[in-house]
Design brief:
transmembrane; membrane; alpha+beta; single chain; transmembrane helix; two-stranded antiparallel sheet
Amino acid sequence: MDSIFTTCEHCAERFEAPTRSAGGLTNCPRCGQATEVSGGSDPLWTALVGLALAVTVVAVTIAYQAGGGPAAAMTFGVCALIATIQRLAA
């Protein structure tokens, strides 16, 4: 069984956790509290980042096609990206 090392958020115990729990939760063997295992990526977060990038591309395309030129397209795209990230973080 492959394993990775992680540190408990509650008692600072360093312990091995199964690789399959990377990016998820496992119980600390010392204090028994659920603790996050580093590594891996959250599929929801990956999907949301993809959505934010898609919104930005669409915003840049619309601004450019509307005749605003590259500067307007980039400004509009950056604003769309910032607004999307703020909504995701809320």
